[in-house]
Amino acid sequence: MNNGELAIALFEACRERGIMVATAESCTGGMIIAALTDIAGSSAVVDRGFITYSNEAKMDMLGVSAATLDAHGAVSRETAIEMAAGALSRSRAGLTLAVTGIAGPGGGSAEKPVGLVWFSVGLAGQTVTAERQLFADKGRAFIRRETVRHALELGLRALGQHQADGATP
After folding, report:
1. Which of 120, 139, 143, 168 has the fewest CB atoms within 10 Å, i.e. the most exposed one?
2. Which residues form the CinA C-terminal domain (predicted)?
3. Angle at which helices 55-62 and 77-89 pack, to 10 degrees?
4. Rounded to a whole number, what is the distance in angstroms from the first to the last CA of the chain?
């Protein structure tokens, strides 16, 4: 599925479950929430998008701790988890998707190369989860587009894992 189809699938899954979604985005700059709000009627499931490109925005808007940013950096598992948790606590959403990464072309290092993205999913009443992806360095647009795709897939997976019958899609 392309990103538009994934967004529609996530929209439908949220609507069926009666939950709202919020995003906490750094490297995508709002592309995930934009994919969702491109859908007519998206106000039924979209609560808000936090665009937290700077560390200050992550702290002010999502409650990411300065200690976390100092110890682990903006592009880290710990920061992604605090972003998703902060979006849950600062919205009406039952599902949050957080992304923080290095889209390039610069800004990478041996430890954190261009294409590294940390994802985190918050689902109300569940433990916030995180995962790391390293996308090929095929340019900024490619990395950002793949980040949106993966975030939408993670949202679908999170909802599928919590169906009443326990089945996964």
Report:
1. 168
2. 6-154
3. 40
4. 14
Summarised one tens digit per residue, pLDDT across range 132-147 is 999 999 999 999 999 9
Read off the tokens for 11.
Answer: 């929209």
Residues 6-23 have a mean pLDDT of: 97
DSSP type of residue 41: T
Distance CA(48)–CA(115), nearest Å, equals 26
The pLDDT tens digits for 59-113 are 999 999 999 999 999 999 999 999 999 999 999 999 999 999 999 999 999 999 9
CA dist., res. 52 & res. 100, Å (int):
9
Domain 3-160, what architecture? Alpha-Beta Complex (3.90)
